[in-house]
Amino acid sequence: MKKKYGLRMTAGAxxxxxxxSGCATDTPTKGTTGAVIGAAAGALTGQAIGHNTGxxxxxxxxxxxxxxxxxxxxxxxxxxxxx
Length: 83
Description:
With 83 residues, the chain is an all-alpha fold. The chain contains three helices and no strands.
């Protein structure tokens, strides 16, 4: 029963992130896209490693931060190339 609950929490968290991030701006930046992809990948990795909700949430937070940082740096680089 706990496995199904953890999977539901993971799926719910990913859906929540995707829905709320879609409303942030009209045109998604690489930072936003990186945060969403990183959070989803981190949540899946955290669930696979920890097999609990805590691991899922930690993975989602770390993945989201790293994804945003990488995407934001890509945005800065792209903007510098245009100027």
